[in-house]
């Protein structure tokens, strides 16, 4: 199996909203560095919208709220990947238009072109991009691992329920340290 590490929605504005874990970015940086050391591609996924939000429908409550707040317009400083985990030149950065990393993006094309059939998921928020991407990737028959402490959510209880109860039904769930030990073998 060929794997990729997905670093999803770890953007300045999102990190600023969900700042409950001061060690999160350094843990995620270790996962990224470990993936690179093991020759596992790191693919970044961001959420961004065109000015005027033409891709946001009024019936989509979460995205409509984002549009009202005028957040995440392409090129705005808040949409940049946080500098502590920033991509290197040549890294693939995918822009999505919905919660799932697959929706409104070319992620599936990039993965298939590289022969990647297994994904390691990290990102903010556990209840948004991670959950949505996990569901869609499962339907697309990808092998899946979720790094439980490589994900973060505004609501710690929702994060706990997802990583301890729901995600294990579809994916392997591991800590960053346990995953790093497994890929170093």
From TrEMBL:
<protein>
    <submittedName>
        <fullName>Cysteine hydrolase</fullName>
    </submittedName>
</protein>
<keyword id="KW-0378">Hydrolase</keyword>
<feature type="domain" description="Isochorismatase-like">
    <location>
        <begin position="3"/>
        <end position="178"/>
    </location>
</feature>
<dbReference type="InterPro" id="IPR050272">
    <property type="entry name" value="Isochorismatase-like_hydrls"/>
</dbReference>
<dbReference type="InterPro" id="IPR036380">
    <property type="entry name" value="Isochorismatase-like_sf"/>
</dbReference>
<dbReference type="GO" id="GO:0016787">
    <property type="term" value="F:hydrolase activity"/>
</dbReference>
<dbReference type="InterPro" id="IPR000868">
    <property type="entry name" value="Isochorismatase-like_dom"/>
</dbReference>
<dbReference type="Pfam" id="PF00857">
    <property type="entry name" value="Isochorismatase"/>
</dbReference>
């Amino acid at each position: 199996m060929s794997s990729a590490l997905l670093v999803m929605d770890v953007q300045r504005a999102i990190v600023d909203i969900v700042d409950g874990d001061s060690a999160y970015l350094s843990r995620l940086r270790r996962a990224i560095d470990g993936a690179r050391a093991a020759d596992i591609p790191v693919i970044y996924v961001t959420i961004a919208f065109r000015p005027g939000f033409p891709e946001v429908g009024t019936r989509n409550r979460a995205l409509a709220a984002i549009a009202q707040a005028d957040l995440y317009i392409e090129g705005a400083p808040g949409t940049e990947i946080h500098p502590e985990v920033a991509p290197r030149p040549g890294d693939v950065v995918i822009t999505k238009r919905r919660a799932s990393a697959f929706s409104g993006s070319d992620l599936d094309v990039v993965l298939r072109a590289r022969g990647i059939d297994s994904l390691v998921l990290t990102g903010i928020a556990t209840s948004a991009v991670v959950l949505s991407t996990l569901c869609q990737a499962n339907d697309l028959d990808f092998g899946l691992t979720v790094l439980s402490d490589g994900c973060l959510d505004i609501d710690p209880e929702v994060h706990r329920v997802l990583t301890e109860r729901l995600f294990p039904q579809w994916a392997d769930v591991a800590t960053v340290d346990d995953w790093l030990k497994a890929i170093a073998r």
